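User: My notes are a mess, but here's the protein and zinc ion's SMILES. Can you give me a structure?
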Amino acid sequence: MPRSRTAEEILRRLVFLGGPTRAGSAVHVELIEAREAAYADWPEWADPLLVERLRASGVERPWSHQAEAAELLHAGRHTVLATGTASGKSAGYLLPALSRLLADAGGGAGGRARTDEAAAGLRPSGPPGPVGPVGPSSNTRRGPSAAARRASASSASSSGRGGTVLYLAPTKALAADQARRLRELDLPIPPAVCLDGDTSGEERRWIREHGAFVLSNPDMLHYSLLPDHRRWSSFLRRLTYVVIDECHGYRGVFGAHVAAVIRRLRRLCAHYGSDPVFALASATTADPGATAARLTGLQVAEVTEDGSPHGRLLFALWEPPLTDGRGELGAPTRRTAVAETATLLADLAGERVRTVAFVRSRRGAELVSVMAREDLARSGGSGEQIAAYRAGYLREERRALEAALQSGRLTAVAATNALELGMDIAGLDAVLLAGYPGTRASLWQQAGRAGRGGQESLAVLIARDDPLDTYLVHHPEALFGKPVEATVFDPGNPYVLWGHLCAAAAELPLRDKDLDLFGPGASALAAELGRSGWLRKRADGWFWTRPERAADLSDLRGMGGEPIRIIEADTGRLLGMADGGSAAGAVHPGAVYLHQGESYLVRDLDLDAAIALVEAKDPGYATYAREVAHVRIVDEERSEGWNTHCRVAYGTVAVTSQVVGYLKRDSRTGQVLGEEPLELPEHTLTTKAVWWTVTPAGLEDALLAAPDIPGAAHAAEHASIGLLPLFADCDRWDLGGLSAAEHPDTGLATVFVHDGLPGGAGFAERGFAKAKDWLTATMDAIRACECRTGCPSCVQSPKCGNGNEPLDKTGAIRLLEVLLRPN
Ligand SMILES: [Zn+2]
Ligand SMILES: [Zn+2]
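Assistant: No problem, the inputs look usable. Here's the predicted complex:
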């Protein structure tokens, strides 16, 4: 272990080992100095027993942000806590929520005396029940635990006087994990229990009667708890806190669904007379307070000043060199992030620097480990030091790998991004990131894997050849400065909202004041649902009178449209679903489809039967569907003139698109292997778009002559799609675009960027809101690329339906200059 070496020395060595070609690769090196912890005192109102238990679990004193959030929540303010990974956000909401439950269980002021009582043996006997739904039933089997008996004896919760807490996580696993930790605190309150799809009827009854801290997910709320609210009335009436954990996970269409579910919950709480305080926990993003307000429909205070400590970190931004290879239309190609990561991993392993490399797909992770082993063996080292670490491994296999890494028998592993949370490895020296992982939250999660326990560490982000990664390595402030990426969704999306209005009406008749809760478009939407027979209007509101369950109309994780089932041809196994609208792009015949990091080849797509047949196969290349589209403006909702020549607008559009072929690129080298034509039917999507126009005089100012205009606009379109994920938490595949030298609806040179899902996901809207910053970044990204006439790092797009023709890189820069000119 090179404990004696500093991160700078390791980085210098890494650059040296690569010889002259590597000299310019570390485009930027950021030193993040160690940060001391900022502590606060335990709040005076915090329950002494809870404080004692938290101390016993290793929290000697709260960090400043934990105490700040706890105080706000205790004072009844809705609050979002948006601090770094591993900053102990849960203590911020557990302090007030559990203190409240303990006070209720102990009978108010008398609760203080209870501490000794609890210590004297009134705690739950034996170990807390296993994780998840077994909790309550194991209690039922053993008879109620001492804690539950105690809580019942105090007659607080069963008599309907004590408060309740509802905790929501995006996944079942996270809720189960939290429940386990809560039970480990061993407090004299009914045990924390999970309510999810696996919870039996008997367990649910127990939860309704005795549950005080209930952990669930939005899907469960939507399908079960809210439609069944009459049975849950006692729980809802006493609801004091609602915790929404990992709330940055609620984005795009999923975020819109969850926002509607929260509004339905709030309406029912009001009906039963409760007014719970909302506690939200988020990764660090731009504007967490505004996002939390959008999600809940409430004013939310934000806590963003992180008081947790971290070690010294050296963070290098790395751009792989251009190769002699030629890509599409002869464009220069960079060494792939996968190949570059493999070489760096081998070099670090050879230096005995303990390293993990994060790669997007399982195939990528395996490729990195195989190539790194070859590299290391070639330079005389032992390839045995390097392994792949992936989701498909059994738990025991993973633990064995972790132990080998811990003991030094293994020096380096390549892991999939999916494992960034589940890995149990402490104290690594270095982390490699093969490409920007898509969000800053993931970036810091991964980088934070090194240097645990305050020791210093090295992180290297290796750029992929796309515009976003190119921009990031040349604009470190986007990663290390204030966050610019926001979690976005559109709670007003009518394609999402209609099903929830029906579900809400089925729960309780919808009155006019209720509709206000669901946003400005809700009244008109309800009237339309009345006209089309979904809802029925009576004197006292809108009613659901149809026989089916209204909650079944919405699938929170669905994308809209009839989903395509993806089936393994040989086994008949259902692998997953693809959104009907975009299926042609994801599972067209010949597509390489990734499922949980595994690679499948699509044999056949039957759109009528809504089935795609696939076989497990890794052909060694990735595929990119090529799509052509037309855009029609349905409704311009907002617009802004930027100067005499240019306007930016936002609104509803109809996009008609068609997959016309696909491109194959070698997974190792990134070389284009060829293009296959396809003929799939057209598909029309009504969604949201942001677009900008330039007048003919503006084009003249940009020195653009007629033949250049389509190429300039097209190149600007591609790059701007690539850069929008910097501002909105989305992927470039969630977006589409179109450019025209003279669009029929505007009569001008126009560039559209639109959401890829029905009704819009909030991405285009965020693009409009941040248009100046976004398009400036687009221009900077194109300028920063050292290629001459355009490449995948700047203006070429792998999904271009026109084969990346025409593209005019210089013209795009001039066009954006005119657009961004103040006057
Ligand atoms: Zn380029
Ligand atoms: Zn294109």
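The longest helix spans residues 252-272.
User: Great, I'll file this with my notes.
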